[in-house]
Input
Amino acid sequence: MKKIYADLHLCPNLRDLEQASNIIKKASMLGYRLIAITFPLNAKEEEIDKIRSISREHKIDLASRVDLKPRTPKELIYNLRKLRRRFEIIAVICESKTVARQAAKDRRVDLLNFSSINPHGRFFDAAEAELASKALASFEIDIKPLLTLEGPARVRLLSSLRRETATAQKFHVPIVISSGVSEKFLMRKPRDMAALAALFDLDEFSAIEAVSKNPMQIIKRNRENLSPRFIAPGIKIIRKGKDC
Amino acid sequence: MDAVWSAVSKLYGEYGASQTGLTLINYDMEKGFAIIRTTHIAIKMVRTALASITKVRDKPAAVHVLTVSGTIKALYKKLENRLL
Output
């Protein structure tokens, strides 16, 4: 069966519709069947629908995403309560250990993301991975810093990623590889993104799963949960009518 | 090719670059593709290095791998199908 590739982190400038359209077109040309675009917290439905119609023109599926950058766990919980049913993907950019722990154990969080520039800003250790494995969070790796950083900064990042991917695999936390780009020159084909994962010793099979199976599972799960047929975890309406 | 050698050396050093045996077979400027030969053991290394290229002669650029094949004849056949 042909694999379906997804890029769950595209960040075009939504005020420039032409640029957004070019990025969506490029994603379709590179072989992605689904992309997730980061919208601001206060994005209106009309804005999301506009971008969705552009992606439909280019024959690519679009998922709405929001990146949360809370300063405290309380702020995270407040935002999750407000935003969970409005966006298909919720990613948390963890800037402190307490936020990282809260995000890892909260079942409403889909993706855990960490700072690529500050090596002390990465909190994905064994404790974090254990919490994430019991919840539904996946560990997200953005490819953009691997392309834009050079020298010691890239070396430090690769070293952190090597350690963290080994931890994620040990605790069976799904890994998702995304581009995280806002310009089309930094976009890469799915297999090329998986090839870049070799730099931090992620095996080929896991890397390809990280750009195909893992992101698709998140989207499928969330779309089911956000559908009107959803009642509660494990309970959904199959059929309505007189003969049920 | 300078950009490719530079990318391989930057990521894998001179030792890694020496394992690749990179050779330019063909470059079609009109269609915008090149055919590069590399050793079988270095395919993953070269693929990674090509993906890491962000500039060619100080201009923003991206290199995408269209297809990989063991022989040049099969490669041209695959390319024909892809470009059609």
User: Anything to note?
Assistant: The beta strands of chain A are 5-10, 32-38, 61-68, 89-94, 111-114, 138-142, 175-178, 230-232, 235-236. DSSP finds ten helices and nine strands in chain A. Residues 194 and 207 of chain A are 5 Å apart (CA to CA). Residues 151-170 of chain A form the longest helix (20 residues).
